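idk why but the lab printer keeps eating my pages so im just putting this in chat instead. protein + 2-acetamido-2-deoxy-beta-D-glucopyranose:
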Amino acid sequence: MQLTPTFLALSLAISSAFAAPSSLHQRALCSSAVKITQSENPFATRKLHANAKYRAEVEAAAAAITDASLKTKALQIADIGSFLWLDTISTIPTFEGYLNQTDCSEIFGVVIYDLPGRDCAAKASNGELPTGSLARYKTEYIDPIAKIIKANPNIAIAAVIEPDSLPNLVTNDDLATCQNAASEYRDGVAYALKTLNLPNVAMYVDAGHGGWLGWNDNLAPGAAELASAYKAAGSPAGVHGVSSNVAGWNAWIKNPGEFENTPDGKYNKAQDEERYVENFGAALATAGMPNHFIVDTGRNAVQGLRLEWGDWCNVNGAGFGRRPTAETGNALADAFVWVKPGGESDGTSDSSATRYDSFCGKEDAFKPSPEAGAWHQKYFEMLLKNANLDGTGTPTSSVPPTGTATSSSAPSSTTSSSAGTAAHYGQCGGTGWTGPTKCESPYTCTVVSAPYYSQCL
Ligand SMILES: *[C@@H]1O[C@H](CO)[C@@H](O)[C@H](O)[C@H]1NC(C)=O
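predcted complex ->
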């Protein structure tokens, strides 16, 4: 599955990290150390922080939109909280500058995502660390992150731990890549949970989504896998439960569920995320693990778009979903959150790219799409047009505004212009790239994910 190798153009990230965003009110850090208790919902009294990295991406995207009402909508997104992905060792030095802008009334969201052999069942988000480098994961990734958090004890933090990793061990153990990664996933997650078990941190171990560990036969093995990592870490008090639907598309409530009436539907009781919370939550309790959830609603406003439940890549026709809130109406669901920063691509649709995953070429995937983590302006604009930030109504299907996903009606490309120069956000270099290498003025070709992807920024 996808996710965000956010090799964000560092110039953009760093310059924006320390500038006070104009729309922020006067920052007020907590005057004493934050202590989150395990019985507390850390989101009940704290708002998810809108980090400066995503804010800068969204503000740049808004600046590129000419339609006035769409531009206004885009700027609203800049104020919505989301998670920061620390998905390479090189992103760690940017962490503290984002973290220390967090107000005392807020909680900072961070995603821990750099296990050796990461993304063992897909290609788009393969990690920087090969299997066999667990020691580096511990000393060069987890330890420095823990050090930064310890230096900022007055800031509340919610951490999503290693999306997809343990779920992949449950359902993709037929793949050699996942078999080879398994022991380091287990030890790595346990080490992360133990090391990040700090008073100001609430941790949620990733649990996939209802269409993954929600199958009746996966509930108990899935819960056992997660609980085993939790226990191996010494049952840390900082673990509140699990995250679900990270970078996903499932509705919170949808009855019947999107795939409920398919022939296989009867083998899965978790047909929407609320039913996943109930069913997997019960399995976690049985397995002896805290079972509160945070649920990613960042891109789930529109349902009925996927051909198959497992389709994960840049689903065409999607819209921004419920804005982050602790008002979920479900006692086990601590919050709806935006974990995946909407507008960052899930993976490239270029079938000749090294990290091409065939899911990104499926009929229901938006094309063309850039490498995972790269900014995807057309996709962002689509999410905006289809947004349902307040969860009003219960949309069951929608006609994608940019046409269907077939190549003949694919959205007009921003990737290159006929003049041989790439437009703003267009690709301008990277492994196997044969298109334009120059950018339209005033943009410059910037390495976003070496060696795979350069973009006009
Ligand atoms: C925030 O973090 C940055 C980067 O580590 C540092 O330069 C800056 O002094 C910090 N600011 C505050 C208020 O702690």
